Amino acid sequence: MDSKPLRVTIWNEFRHEKANPEVAAFYPDGMHEALAAPLRAAGHEVRTATLDEPEHGLTDEVLAGTDVLLWWGHRHHRDVDDAVVERVWKRVLDGMGLIPLHSSHFSKIFVRLMGTTCHLKHRVAGERERLWLVARGHPIAEGVPEHFDLQPEEMYGEPFDIPPPEELVFVSWFQGGEVFRSGCCYTRGQGRIFYFRPGHETYPTYHHPTVQRVIANAVRWAAPRDVAPRQFGRSAPLEPL
Predict the structure, then answer these.
(1) Which residues neighbour 82 within 8 Å (Cβ) at sequence distance 6 or greater?
(2) In sequence order, what are the beta bridge partners of 195?
């Protein structure tokens, strides 16, 4: 695996941790810091940004210096400024990777990139989730077992109103009987997107070593590729007319 350090930005609402002691018990420094720690340990250049910072911490300068953006949102999607969403959208089309986590399926940026409602079924019951790896050999699957369990976790169930994934890496089964497409790959413009389902805020999911491994692999996979920039608009002929 290429060991070149990447510039990673982790965005988080960072409101649950301040208001809910149950969340703060697992993530005293915020979920963004729990996500950042293993990526920093791997040698990446990691910064964080949160909802209540000016411009939500996602200025033009920050995004220009970001190879991969992780996004965790839940109850405050509507508080994200549309101008910032537009800024992130353009950077994804230009090649920045995006990893929306858990309830970020409802984030403005993911909904815009998918072009669908992104609705699903859900239930918070502290049940067991079993994630099955269905794309053995995919870069995001490197070092990941055929299946692994998370307990407790929130249930997400089908139907999940998203476009068919270009590649499906994980499928979840839940103790209550539901299944869900939990690891979905897309390309938009020159940017790669990986939606990864686990991560309910009142559970210690982001401390799980296999979850951390999947996210680290996804960061590598979603990083910008060395491709020619897109060119649109008026074009000169290649041959004499």
Answers:
(1) 108
(2) 184
d(CA 203, CA 188): 31
What angle (nearest 5°) sits at the alpha carbon of residue 142, between those of residues 138 and 146?
85
214-234: pLDDT as tens digits: 999 999 999 998 877 778 899
Quote the DSSP letter at residue 165.
P
Residue of 223, 193, 196 lying closest to 208 (CA atoms): 196
Q: Which two tokens stand for residue 49?
A: 């940004």
Q: Which residue's structure tokens are 């911490």?
A: 57
Q: Which of 167, 73, 181, 168 is nearest to 121 (CA)?
A: 181
Q: What is the pLDDT of residue 42?
A: 94
Specify the residue for token string 């669908």: 116
Token pair 């508080």 is found at 79
